[in-house]
Write a structure and sequence with these properties.
Chain B: It is a multi-pass membrane protein. Chain B: It comes from Vreelandella titanicae BH1. Chain B: It is found in: Cell membrane. Chain B: Belongs to the binding-protein-dependent transport system permease family. The structure holds two protein chains of two kinds. Chain A contains ten helices and 20 strands. Chain A has helices spanning about 1-10, 60-70, 110-120, 125-140, 155-170, 185-205, 215-220, 240-245, 250-255, 340-345; strands at about 20-35, 35-45, 50-55, 75-80, 85, 100, 175-180, 205-210, 225-230, 230-235, 260-265, 270, 275-280, 290-295, 300, 310-315, 320-330, 335-340, 355-360, 365-370. In chain A, helix 3 crosses helix 4 (about 125-140). In chain A, about 40% of the residues are buried. Chain B has helices at about 5, 15-45, 60-65, 65-100, 105-115, 120-130, 150-175, 180-185, 190-220, 225-230, 235-245, 250-280, 295-325, 345-380, 385-395, 400-410, 425-435, 440-450, 455-460, 465-480, 480-495, 510-520, 525-555; strands spanning about 325, 330-335. Chain B has a two-stranded antiparallel sheet. The longest helix of chain B has about 35 residues, at about 65-100. Chain B starts with a helix and ends in a 7-residue tail after the last helix. Chain B has one domain (about 1-45, about 65-335, about 340-555): MetI-like (MetI-like fold, Orthogonal Bundle), CATH 1.10.3720. Chain B is about 70% helix and about 0% strand. By secondary structure, chain B is mostly helical. The chains are: A alpha+beta, B mainly alpha. The structure holds adenosine-5'-triphosphate (ATP) and magnesium ion.
Chain lengths: ~375, ~575
């Protein structure tokens, strides 16, 4: 999976950002349900025109944060500022956003046309202008000609696009999407992903999307907000999140990651068993138990024995690469290495083989012990 | 009351939540005035003497020292328990026939079995007099026993309570899991053990709930014992006799409090069961399909159609009795009894009053109850208010009609009560009937609303559409089948009920069901039968219209349900 991810990341040329103006500022927002804290002091700024993903495991508070922004849930404490206006206590109706729910919540008794026109009707817009606007929106989501169908007659992907058109109809400044693709099957999902992204880029509407699918977040977002247990673990571009995870949680949640138990040493050093290894600089105390994180594709294997060696105990064929599980010779720990298929012929892999292992210092990060599990 | 909230146009968003609050408060006020205050007033009355001074439990002491009154407790328990045994036994067998056998003619049987609901409970009592009374053509079947008394009461109650039990048990037996039966069969389990170890435990909650519902209906029924009870008095007829006969309101209140106890107990048990049952449902259950078994199927066909035959016989007798010149001496057919000469002000006026009441309750009640349920289910905030409203919406189920009616006298007839002007109007009858049958409608609404996408309101709000627009354009149309069910339920009950309204009519607002009672008291048995039949036919026509309308709606107007 990670190869697809790295290639996607490589393809993701950072869009040129105009000088950024904040669209939405969230300050120290906390939400409690009784004694349970669903959001714990969330602070975040979302810029004009940006596509931001909230990513995190189930129950981490993504939906709660989105609903707080929408005014559907009232935060316990904290402030929300949209375009310099304090919206913290405004009711939903008075806030400027459009929303697409996971269930789409299309009105089953209204046609596609009436669903999309639902928010326009109320504004006393003339009929002809409503008609023109709905036509425009349906063209935007490639649904021209479905005006008179009922939601039940549409496929999941089509329903999703109707919901999107309905949310965009009133030209909101902010678009909120709560797991908009999770109810669809994998192929439709991939297609819609690029469609939504292209649409967003074209309209330039500031967008927040909730997802628990890391691939979705990495491919679509300008910036990702990784959440866990109601707090933000890291905010960054997909490449930052992937290559420089700020915590062991982020490291383990995104992509595959090896965690080796080590003891922190002086700057740039750790002890794996009795063997010193180099790593990126860290702030841990000397002698503190730590874990050394390294991605499988960063691990280099060779037929020559080196300072660190391991015995091959498993080989999985995964198409473009082979996933090799090794037991380290001197310390009783396992390590996974991804070997591109063309290198694996040189290695001539077989079970029980002992290989030399190199852990590049620039790919190895130290985190405090016991902090990686979600 | 609700309309107020629609009048104000919402230009500012804060108005919207104010409107919501106002609507909620209106809903709460309705039930506080229409239920809580009257009940509390009644409880207080039971602790006062005739002059209105507080005398503690003296009334109760007096009650328990009067053998004629205390006897009624035992009498009521006796007939209620017997009725429960008969009804639940028969209904279980019939429900089993419908759900677990391949008997032919299930639809016809279900249609016939539902008929008693459309008739006032006075109708079977009148028919039974014609069938088994002193001149009855089947009286020999009773082997010398008199139908005036417990036997007649149990038969009459069984007739009109049967459909309620049948519906509950059919639902309970429908929720079966085929996988359990397949497992049992694979293990070679004998049929009787499968029944004891799978079927019965599977329906135990439905069965217990049914037992309590039937028991409550039986112990609080007024119509049947009033007509056919003779000298055999029960609690419900005691309330009537104390209040209407002897003008002893305090004692009426005492009996009402005693009558309230079994109903409240059964209400608590039912709530407890409902909470348990939820956990039992499994989403992956596979419905069980019966396979033919000739002997079993024929036994159940015979049984079900014997029951249906009895129902048709009872209704047919009432119809026949209403058409015969002078039973049993002159059997020529006439429509003379439908002129209701026994009533000074003419019977058709009463029928027309009933029609007005039924239509008003159906219209107002449906809108108010559904809208209140929507406020409870689909609002954010105002939690205590919403919970309070829900609790009060559940209460009417625990209040017998006689008790509610008497409570209304106490509350609305007080001098100085600002609602005093309602007394004796059609409005108080509408309010009373609406409250009396509130709970079932509320539960139906809640069930329908829970099936809707929880985000409809949020979408509406995000598009800056006021909540009542979304309510009218989406929620109401999508829930239309349930809304129609509620309105027909209210119509039929308003048409047939007698227990609460018997205390509340005046000469201008006399109702058809009360007229049956009066005609019977005055000895115009054939006219009483005619009026009961008239009520039955009215309900039947409305029910048929409802069925047709629902059919048309689901097939045409609501094309979106099966859109393609
Ligand atoms: N109304 C509520 N009352 C009580 N607890 C709630 C309520 N809404 C959410 N929670 C709790 O808050 C936590 C966060 O919920 P939230 O729906 O935001 O999670 P999520 O990140 O969207 O998860 P998922 O990926 O499963 O949708 C959960 O533990 C949930 O149980
Ligand atoms: Mg969620």
């Amino acid at each position: 999976m990670h190869t697809t991810m790295t290639s996607l990341l490589a393809a993701d040329t950072p869009t040129v950002m105009t000088p950024t103006t904040p669209h939405l500022t969230i300050e120290a927002v906390t939400k409690r349900f009784g004694s349970f804290t669903a959001l714990d002091g969330i602070s975040l700024t979302i810029n004009e025109g940006e596509f931001v993903c909230f990513l995190g495991p189930s129950g981490c508070g993504k939906t709660t944060l989105l609903r707080t922004i929408a005014g559907l849930t009232q935060q316990t404490t904290g402030t929300l500022i949209q375009r310099d206006k304090d919206i913290s206590t405004l009711p939903t109706q008075a806030r400027d956003f459009g929303i697409v729910f996971q269930s789409y919540a299309l009105f089953p008794n209204l046609t596609v046309f009436n669903n999309v026109a639902y928010g326009l009707r109320n504004r006393r817009v003339e009929r002809s202008r409503i008609q023109a606007r709905v036509g425009e929106l349906l063209a935007l989501v490639n649904l021209t000609g479905s005006e008179n169908k009922y939601p039940a007659a549409l496929s999941g992907g089509q329903q999703q696009r109707v919901a999107l058109a309905r949310a965009l109809a009133t030209e909101p400044g902010l678009l909120l999407l709560d797991e908009p693709l999770s109810a669809l099957d994998a192929r439709v999902r991939g297609h819609l992903r690029s469609q939504i992204k292209a649409l967003q880029a074209r309209l330039g509407v500031t967008t927040i999307m909730v997802t628990h699918d890391q691939e979705e977040a990495l491919t679509m977002a300008d910036r990702i907000v990784v959440m866990n247990h109601g707090v933000i673990e890291q905010v960054g571009t997909p490449a930052e999140i992937y290559h420089q995870p700020a915590s062991a949680f982020v490291a383990s949640f995104i992509g595959s990651m090896n965690f080796l138990e080590v003891t922190a040493q002086g700057d740039n050093q750790a002890l794996l068993g009795t063997m010193p290894c180099a790593c990126l600089s860290h702030t841990l105390k000397v002698g503190q138990a730590a874990q050394l994180a390294i991605r499988p594709e960063a691990v280099a294997l060779s037929r020559q024995a080196g300072a660190l060696n391991g015995e091959v105990i498993g080989i999985e064929f995964l198409g473009p690469f082979q996933r090799v599980t090794l037991r380290l010779t001197d310390v009783d720990q396992t390590l996974i290495a991804d070997v591109p298929s063309r290198d694996s012929t040189d290695l001539n892999l077989y079970q029980g083989q002992v290989l030399g292992i190199h852990l590049p210092a620039e790919a190895a990060r130290l985190y405090p012990a016991g902090s990686s599990q979600q | 009351m609700i309309a107020e909230s629609f009048v104000k146009s919402a230009t500012k968003p804060s108005l919207e939540s104010l409107n919501r609050l106002l609507a909620l408060l209106a809903g709460v006020a309705l039930l506080v005035v229409g239920l809580l205050f009257p009940l509390v007033t009644m409880l207080i009355k039971s602790l006062q003497d005739r002059a209105g001074d507080f005398i503690g439990l003296a009334n109760f002491a007096h009650y328990f020292q009067t053998p004629a009154l205390v006897n009624s407790i035992a009498n009521s328990l006796r007939v209620a328990l017997m009725t429960t045994g008969v009804v639940v036994g028969l209904a279980f067998l019939c429900a089993y026939g419908i759900t677990r056998t391949c008997m032919p003619g299930k639809r016809l049987f279900r249609m016939l079995a539902i008929l008693p609901i459309l008739a006032p409970s006075l109708l079977p009592a009148i028919s039974l007099v014609y069938l088994f009374g002193n001149q009855g053509f089947l009286r020999d079947l009773l082997a010398g026993q008199s139908v005036y008394g417990p036997i007649g009461i149990v038969m009459g109650m069984s007739f009109w309570i049967f459909p309620h039990a049948l519906m509950l048990l059919t639902t309970a037996l429908t929720n079966s899991d085929a996988r359990l039966y397949e497992a049992a069969e694979a293990l070679g389990t004998p049929k009787w053990r499968t029944f004891l170890t799978i079927t019965l435990p599977g329906v135990r909650y439905g069965l217990i709930s049914c037992l309590f519902v039937v028991f409550t209906l039986a112990i609080t029924d007024f119509g049947v014992p009033k007509i056919i009870g003779g000298q055999f008095s029960v609690l419900a007829t005691d309330v009537y006799r104390q209040v209407v006969g002897q003008q002893n309101f305090q004692m009426g209140a005492v009996v009402s409090v005693i009558l309230l106890l079994p109903a409240v107990l059964s209400f608590i048990v039912d709530r407890w069961i409902q909470r348990r049952q939820v956990a039992q449902l499994s989403a992956r259950a596979v419905p069980w399909q019966p396979s033919p078994s000739p002997l079993r199927d024929w036994i159940f066909t015979l049984l079900c159609y014997a029951v249906a035959g009895a129902i048709v016989l009872v209704i047919g007798t009432a119809v026949y009795a209403s058409l015969v010149q002078f039973w049993p001496y002159n059997l020529s057919i006439t429509f003379e009894h439908y002129t209701f000469q026994g009533m000074a002000d003419g019977g058709w006026g009463a029928w027309f009053n009933s029609l007005k009441l039924a239509f008003s309750v159906a219209l107002v009640g449906t809108l108010v109850i559904f809208f209140n349920a929507w406020l409870i289910e689909k609002s954010e905030g105002f939690r205590p208010l919403r919970q309070g409203l829900h609790f009060m919406a559940m209460l009417p189920m625990a209040v017998p009609g006689m008790v509610l009616g008497l409570a209304y006298i106490f509350f609305f007839n007080q001098a100085g009560n600002p609602f005093n002007w309602l007394y004796g109007t059609l409005t108080i009858l509408v309010l009373n009937t609406l409250v009396h049958f509130y709970t079932v409608c509320h539960l139906t609404s809640v069930t329908a609303l829970k099936q809707l996408d929880p985000e409809f309101e949020a979408v509406g709000a995000s598009l800056k559409v006021p909540f009542w627009t979304t309510f009218c354009r989406v929620t109401l149309p999508v829930s239309l089948p349930a809304v129609l069910d509620i309105s027909v339920y209210l119509f039929v009950n308003a048409m047939t009920t007698v227990s609460a309204v018997v205390f509340l009519y005046n000469s201008d607002t006399r109702l058809a069901s009360v007229a049956v009672l009066h005609l019977d008291e005055a000895g115009y048995f054939a006219s009483a039968a005619a009026m009961a039949v008239l009520i039955f036919l009215t309900s039947l026509v409305v029910k048929l219209l409802h069925t047709a309308l629902t059919h048309v709606l689901l097939n045409n107007a609501q094309r979106w349900r099966h859109a393609c």
